[in-house]
Amino acid sequence: MIVGKVDAGACGFQTRIEAAASGMETVRIHIESECPDIQKAAADLKEIAIMELAFGKIGATRVYETIARYCKHASCPVPMAILKSAEAAAGIALPKTVSLTMEKIEDERER
Q: Are the C-beta atoms of 14 and 33 separated by less than 8 Å?
């Protein structure tokens, strides 16, 4: 089983994703989230087809489509984290950490 943890940033919501391979066809997904929108989407994302993981295009997978029905924040990192965790569980990707760091730097051009 792969466990992914997401600190979504400014919203402050934490999400935990458990992904476990179920043969060579599906990955079982369990999502616990402080975000009410992700909680709703989790009910629709209990399994993901491995072929969707291997050949899906950005934004065109069932994961992104499901999250889009419930979550109104286009840059929410949770759908990517669900897919990354599921890929690792299925053995089609390594379980490596993904990160984004940001800092505000004053720029002369902004003044």
A: yes
